[in-house]
Amino acid sequence: MRALNHILVTGGAGFIGANFIRYLFQKTDFSGKIVNLDKLTYAGNPENLTDIDEAWGGKRYFFEKADICDFDAVSEILKRHEIDTLVHFAAESHVDRSIYGPGEFVSTNIQGTFTLLEAVRAFWKDRQDVLFHHVSTDEVYGSLGDEGFFFEDTPYDPRSPYSASKASSDHLVMAYWHTYGIPVTLSNCSNNYGPYQFPEKLIPLMILNIKDGKPLPVYGDGRNIRDWLFVDDHNSAVWTILKGGRPGETYNVGGENEWENIRLVHTLCEKTAATLGRDPEACKGLITYVKDRPGHDRRYAINCDKIKGELGWRQTVSFETGLDTTIAWYLANTAWIDRVRSGAYRQWIDRNYGAR
Ligand SMILES: NC(=O)c1ccc[n+]([C@@H]2O[C@H](COP(=O)([O-])OP(=O)(O)OC[C@H]3O[C@@H](n4cnc5c(N)ncnc54)[C@H](O)[C@@H]3O)[C@@H](O)[C@H]2O)c1
User: Fold this and answer.
1) Where does residue 311 fall: left (phi above 0), alpha (psi -120 to 50 degrees), or beta otherwise?
2) How many Å apart are CA 126 and CA 171, to the nearest integer?
3) Residue 96 belongs to domain with CATH number
4) 139 an active-site residue?
5) Which of 45, 65, 89 to mutate to test the pocket of ligand 1 (most atoms within 8 A of CB)?
6) pLDDT band at 118 (very low <50, low <70, confident <90, very high)
7) Taking the CB of the first residue and of the last residue of the chain, which one, N or C, has fewer CB atoms within 10 A?
8) 352: pLDDT confidence band, cut at 50, 70 and 90?
9) In this predicted model, what pLDDT tens digit does every residue of 154-182 receive, in sequence order?
10) Is 20 within the bounds of a domain?
């Protein structure tokens, strides 16, 4: 029987992690405590959870500013909060940044995951009622042609420093299961979208540039294909795995929702223009094709029959509804956007949480 009572979420101030914590408090029957361990890089924003902190702070919700590469800090937090479940979201997550500066990806994604594994190995010893869940990406599988899907046993073939660092961390996680018997599960998920995503990623970037009348940069010929999943559906998959996933298993998670980038950008132009009362064709006129990303994977498509068949998980948010929710959120939350884009935000973090 899994304890599932004191959960440590790494990277809980980022996009998916913050939505995961909110999801657990608001949409599940989870009644234990959550500790959010985050270093607060440019992508981490404790404001993403202000409502949760106000409702549960000091009672069932705790924030710890720490680096996953710091063994002593992680060990002390595991012990002090008597952690029995670790959900590992923390990572450097933007492919473009990994191309320009891969070092940070190697240290956080590989060394950081290794440090967490070492810390739980020392703390949990041979306990079997605990779980280390590692959140990973479909990008570890490489690129598909026009046909076919990624399955859990598809050989790894990462192409960017980001996906190579995630692939490496996946292997370490599985090695700790096979070598030391640490109960682990792993999920490889397709592209997420939704509220609180840092506006460097495709969907929020396009919504905000449409709003501001700025160019809409599209890589190469715009024909690259991604499989999109609303963030709450990813998080319901993680929760499903925490409750029923078998130790040592990988679960693919996806939207079964493939879109060419250019078609998606056209749809965002139409929907955002309709909300703002603008001419959609004028918005499409902002599209600017730019030099392709080096090593740009052509197509990702996930087969998620395993988690559906074995654990009964399903996507629940249609792309139509998910996009409408996301567009409405980015158009309404201008203060959040101004802050995460500004230098003043960094100063505020340093003032309230100490310099990095
Ligand atoms: N965004 C997607 O579409 C997607 C899809 C599949 C898998 N994933 C995976 O999900 C996870 C979360 O992705 P995201 O989009 O929320 O990322 P994000 O960049 O929005 O958030 C990452 C968080 O990790 C924190 N962090 C970074 N380095 C840290 C360190 N050394 N110590 C402690 N905290 C640190 C950041 O401060 C931030 O809060 C990542 O592991 C990513 O690989 C993302």
Assistant:
1) alpha
2) 20
3) 3.40.50.720
4) yes
5) 89
6) very high
7) N
8) confident
9) 999 999 999 999 999 999 999 999 999 99
10) yes
